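Need fresh eyes. Consider my entry:
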Amino acid sequence: MSDAESPENSGSYSAENITVLEGLEAVRKRPGMYIGSTGPQGLHHLVYEVVDNSVDEAMAGHCSAIEVIIHSDGSAEVRDDGRGIPTGEHPQYEGMSAAEVVMTVLHAGGKFGGGGYKVSGGLHGVGISVVNALSEKVEVEIDREGSRHFMDFKDGGNVSTKLEVRGDAPDGRTGTTVRFWPDGTIFEETDFRAQTLLDRFQMMAFLNRGLKIRFRDDRREDPHEDANEDGWIEFHYEGGIIDFVRHVNQSKEALFAKVGYYEVIEEEQEVEIAFQWNTGFNSDGLHSFANGITTGGGGMHETGFRTALTRTLNAYGHAKNFLKDSESLTGDDAREGLTAIISVRLQDPQFEGQTKDKLGNVSVRSMVEKATNEKLAEWLEENPAEGKAIINKAIAAQRAREAARAARDTIRNKTALDGAGMPEKLKDCSSKDPRERELFIVEGDSAGGSAIQARDPKTMAILPIRGKILNVERARLDKMLKNNEVQTLIQAIGAGIGDEFDINEIRYHKIILLADADVDGSHIRTLLLTFFFRQMRELVENQHVYIAQPPLYSTTVGKSKKYLKDDREKDDFLEQHPNHKKDFQRLKGLGEMQWQELAETTMNPGDRTLLQVSVEQAAIADEVFSTLMGEDVARRKHFIQTNAKDVRFLDI
């Protein structure tokens, strides 16, 4: 029988072709379906899943403190003072405790209508069992009903010790402790990054007023600069999202000192909103959450707030004669400089969109809209000085918007006169399919010339930019649109800017930033990233933005040349080749590389390394960009010093 006729290749499809993955085997077979990836993002997701269970206890009013420890052996431990996972026998699984069911059965837990939780943060209820499936070892300790229970698992969720009592719970304590060792055969690396975890824990503490979250990293020889003498870093905010707004705005200049706040609680849903305007020019400072989950795609709660905010400010402006009868503020005018946190909690959240980050519950829109119409109007009446400052800022934004419209028209007219409408300096590619087209934004004309020679003209377009573009963190849209380099970027990408940006119109699915591997190159990359994040955010959210990785060093190994991206890669190379005696040549810049070298090291898809830029937590990204590109030099220096060692995890 030929290969084409064998059962494997015959195209037959019968019962024998159906593979059944038992228990947690499905998770190990396709981990990306459950945690997104097996890279750093997926690794850290394991910790979030365990912590989310403890946060659910806090939202239900049964947990006041959560502690997370990264042990020196690389394991992660999460413990809380909640009720403890139930330990009795589960009615549907004979011979299995409820705790074992939670640890080994997908979609098992207190989040599916069993009365365990009114609201919960998990999307699918698979959290703790998925952690078990993707760990080489898991230990669970439960303090409940006066006893301390213990069980453990190994090799992806296989029971090693059935649940057993190991004495009394100390001092009548209740709660759950989970310690797990990520499986090195599943994950690309198993080294947790402390700052990534801290950012997430701080956000959780903000969203759960009064909840105490403590973190300790036992891998460190020297204590973290924010830790106490025992090595603990603690997040505890009695002000909740009021403190969250202050935190996001601390790298900006507040328009006034007060932070506004209101909340509405209904039988099956509730909302709390905190807000404060700053003197900045961005209108994307709205951050929303549903049951503690970031809703980066927005949804009904954001729609309700935006609608009511614009209506309320217009009504207030007209009532106080700040606005003429013929004048009207737009949503962008109202939101310029606004930082607002919207946190809703509801029994049955419906998440939509490809990434499940958009809230679809219609009832939430009505609740938030009504709450904002009433409560924000009351706040403005009670705070007339702040109300006047808000309206005056919105009026200034309105005038700038009119100027920006004129600048946009100038760009459009220029585009029409130019025929194809593309910048002269753009060397476009011949492919007509945006999915395979790449735009290299290259630092300098000299490097641009080398890149043009090094490219594949079918799929790679080259756009040289001269010098450093405008810092859009400190400029209104009207000023931005007068900048030649900004105009060039808008024309080349072809999808508009700001509220007019349309992701479906982008001409390239890869926007690749190609700058020198030095301080000036890093600054140019940061300016470009700030521009994309503030004015074309969907480009970043849909992961179309990449950073090329040109090498900083070269050396000779035998008869071939070896390129090394940075000092870390150079150190790793020397560690692996301790007898290497050759000199290292520091590459001065892209413009001084031969085009063949540029192609081989940085542009050829088969050899290059691209760093994909993503926005996992928009509120954290907002703070990062404001810190890096704002006026506060001391905060910027502190941020860089804190994060410099972990730059391999660049994720903004």
About this structure: Residues 553-586 form one domain. The chain has a mean pLDDT of 84.
